[in-house]
Design goal:
The structure is a single chain. With about 240 residues, the chain is mainly α. Helices cover about 70% and strands about 0% of the residues.
Length: about 240
């Protein structure tokens, strides 16, 4: 009983610790569960995209997640190499909450949010803290909310005239070039440009080109899907 009480008392500090260890291991069951939640959210987002309560719920959850995460970052003086909002998905989270609808930038970040959330859950890269930790909680909740908010926005507001394909590619390479500069100044790994998953080596310009090509291709594929969906709905109307 004493050990249980001590463990319970240590949980809050463990959850908020700044002592780095290693990224938590992901069991096969945990991974299957994460993917299952991802697929379920895609299904219900398509079904309830026009539901105001559904929309507000995930926007509030996203805002809650960001407030808690950045309170920890700034409250514990986490290094600029980690606490700036310059990851692709983090930028998309803020864009979904703060940018006005029917905005070219918001549509771009919505496409980025869908693809980024799927990539992040499909190949999760957690921060190096023992589970459970605020960062792992934020990673999961943040990407699930981003997926929903981006999907709901694209279903309700996608406009094929807002973004040209060459603009999607241009924005992606420009954004990634900016992140390369941020990493050079802070020593961080924003946008996974310095140490991208599945790409060995630290050749920054090779990483930049490869990551940008993969990301731009994913955005173009999602854009084409929603463009065809938009055309189909236009014919029905």
């Amino acid at each position: 009983i004493a050990d249980q009480k001590r463990s319970h008392q240590m949980l809050p500090s463990h959850f908020l610790t700044t002592q780095k260890t290693a990224p938590p291991p992901i069991s096969a069951m945990s991974y299957v569960t994460m993917i299952g939640i991802l697929l379920f959210l895609i299904y219900i987002s398509v079904r309830y995209a026009q539901n105001p309560l559904y929309q507000k719920t995930f926007k509030y959850l996203q805002a809650f997640q960001l407030v808690i995460l950045y309170s920890w970052y700034f409250g514990f003086h986490i290094s600029f190499a980690n606490n700036l909002p310059f990851y692709h998905c983090r930028l998309a989270m803020f864009a979904m909450l703060l940018l006005p609808d029917k905005c070219r930038s918001k549509q771009y970040f919505a496409l980025l949010g869908v693809s980024g959330a799927i990539f992040a859950i499909g190949y999760p890269v957690f921060d190096p803290y023992d589970f459970p930790h605020l960062t792992s909680f934020s990673f999961l909740l943040g990407h699930y909310c981003l997926l929903v908010n981006s999907l709901v926005y694209l279903i309700n507001h996608y406009d094929k005239q807002l973004l040209k394909k060459y603009e999607i590619v241009g924005y992606t390479f420009a954004l990634d070039l900016f992140l390369v500069g941020v990493n050079a100044v802070t020593g961080g790994n924003y946008g996974l440009m310095t140490h991208p998953p599945l790409i060995k080596g630290d050749r920054i310009w090779v990483n930049y080109v490869l990551v940008s090509l993969v990301l731009a291709t994913a955005l173009l594929l999602f854009d084409e899907y929603f463009k065809r969906r938009w055309k189909k709905q236009s014919k029905l109307v």
